Amino acid sequence: MLDIKNRELIEWLDRWFKEHGYPQDDTAVLHDLEQAIGDYLLWMTGQGYADKTIGGYKRQLNQFFVFIKGRRFSWDGIFTLDTLKWFQKVRALPHVHAVRGLSRYLLEQGKVPRPIPKGKAPVDLPDIYEQYLAYHKQSQQAPDRKIKAVRRVLAALHDHLERHRIKLSHLTST
Question: Does the pTM exceed 0.85?
Answer without folding.
Answer: no
